[in-house]
Design brief:
By secondary structure, the protein is an alpha/beta fold. It contains 13 helices and 15 strands. A seven-stranded mixed β-sheet has the order 2-10-9-8-5-3-4, sandwiched between helices. A four-stranded antiparallel β-sheet has the order 11-12-15-14, covered by helices on one side. The chain has a two-stranded parallel sheet with strand order 1-13.
């Protein structure tokens, strides 16, 4: 009660993988040496491996938003027509980036908590054959919803447009067949399922997207895909890299490969399923019940209770940091993450803490009901397999 361990339970940054943290202590390595070049090459190769693509993967010193902006400035020209799917705070960010660079944007908007249907993308593409790009989130972290990027990839592949996917929280939490589904640009970030601090972004680039690079006329300098590809092949970044983070990512990728990307995704899916079962058992309502993703579960606060209160109570009572709602949902929902270095022991504690907080604020709770729901999902998935039942 008097000792509180800090527990990071947000959808980014996420808990750090300890060996990756230790690897950062070797960051006095100079970045223009053969030792570091070997690490840099191995990171790019392992990223391609875990992302499951034969295309190029580039890495940048930035948050994921840097790679989002780079995908616009490197692959489009002012006046290009683009379709932007907006169903949350990060969809709005796509729209803002595209508009800031002078693209002519058609917004396909859905309410927070919902998703943009593939059929709407198909209709928009048919209405404007000159469309150069479609932008979407694989996982809309602000609402907990997941888009059908497989269906969108199939629709966009029939046209000359490219599909640009913000998979910053999608990678490692949902299946993404980059080459097979026609996902031309897939963007990731270090502080999500890859279990290291913020500061690195990466993107896979398809041959079709590279064709767009050749005709793009938007200015870019620091974020230059072609320059980054050339230097990356030699084990170097175009500019001074975040040496410590690259060393950490090298260690984290070893772990992801050891566990298996499919198992990492399965882990997030099981935690998400258990969380949904638990909060519903506690009489709470899911915010995105139609298309829930596995990176984070968004939950409506009980009537009359600001979700910010629940967030503050987690911090003050248990030293745990969960996420409030974003944008128009601030104060209405709270979000519990599942991506990266999370396990069921974490979730048992989160749900037990949630029961205490709800009880303290007058929401009727049967202690242990939510935890039991998590235990059932765990037992169905793990215990029976272990004992051979």
């Amino acid at each position: 009660m008097h000792i509180k361990k800090l527990r990071l339970l947000t959808p980014g940054p996420t808990p750090l993988y300890p060996p990756a943290l230790h690897a950062m202590m070797a960051s006095d390595m100079h970045h223009r040496t053969e030792d570091f070049r070997k690490v840099y090459k191995s990171v790019l190769a392992d990223l391609k491996d875990v992302m499951g693509t034969s295309g190029d993967v580039l890495m940048f010193v930035s948050s994921g938003t840097g790679a989002m902006e780079a995908s616009v400035s490197n692959l489009f020209s002012r006046g290009d027509k683009a379709i932007v799917c907006v169903a949350g705070k990060f969809g709005e960010r796509w729209a803002e980036i595209a508009q800031a660079h002078g693209l002519e944007v058609t917004l396909l908007e859905s309410a927070y908590g919902d998703t943009v249907a593939v059929e709407r993308v198909e209709t928009a593409l048919a209405a404007e054959p000159a469309t150069k790009g479609v932008f979407v989130q694989a996982s809309e972290t602000s609402t907990g919803a997941a888009h059908d990027v497989r269906g969108m990839g199939k629709a966009v592949a029939k046209t000359s447009a490219i599909l640009v996917v913000d998979a910053i929280t999608g990678l490692g939490t949902m299946p993404l067949d980059i080459d097979g589904w026609g996902l031309d640009v897939v963007i990731g970030g270090s502080q999500k399922a890859f279990m290291i601090p913020p500061g690195l972004a990466f993107a896979s680039i398809s041959p079709k997207a590279w064709q767009h690079y050749e005709t793009s006329t938007l200015p870019h300098y620091y974020f230059d895909f072609k320059k980054e590809k050339k230097n990356g092949a030699n084990g170097e970044s175009s500019w001074t890299p975040a040496t410590a983070l690259v060393l950490a990512l090298a260690e984290a990728l070893k772990y992801v490969k050891q566990v298996g990307m499919e198992k990492l995704i399965e882990n997030a899916g099981l935690l998400a399923r258990a969380t949904r079962a638990a909060v519903q058992e506690l009489g709470l309502e899911l915010f995105s019940p139609k298309s829930p993703g596995s990176s984070v579960t968004a939950v409506r606060a009980p009537k009359g209770l600001d979700s910010g209160v629940i967030v503050k109570e987690f911090r003050s009572r248990f030293g745990a940091i969960i996420a409030n709602g974003q944008g128009s949902m601030k104060g209405q929902i709270f979000r519990i993450a599942h991506l990266g270095y999370f396990d069921f022991a974490d979730l048992f504690a989160v749900i037990a803490g949630l029961e205490v907080i709800l009880h303290a604020y007058g929401h009727p709770v049967t202690f242990g009901a939510g935890v039991a729901a998590v235990q059932k999902v765990y037992c169905d998935a793990a215990v029976r397999q272990t004992v051979g039942v």
